[in-house]
Amino acid sequence: MNGIGLMGATAFKIGELKPETGNGTTVRLQGKVVQQIPLAGWRMYQLQDSTGKIWVLTKRTNVRLQTPVSIEGKVYFQSIPIAGQDFGEIYVEEQQVQTPTR
Description:
This protein is mainly beta and 102 residues long.
């Protein structure tokens, strides 16, 4: 993950992120956009690297499928308790993004 081009955050592989990473922790991730969902005023896309996938929340409207990106963002865990079990999900709120130039 060296040379990601973004500063001020620790580089992680997606598979290394756990609920214990800490809400609001700033991380750097690198991967490819494999899925996206429009939301009211936001957009979510799924970022994939060799270790896993994670949903990323963004205000950008120019997210393109199959595009490699490097991001810096804040990690959050949303707890979803159902029948005594937690089906929570980790996601990242994008703060900065770097896409390759063509």
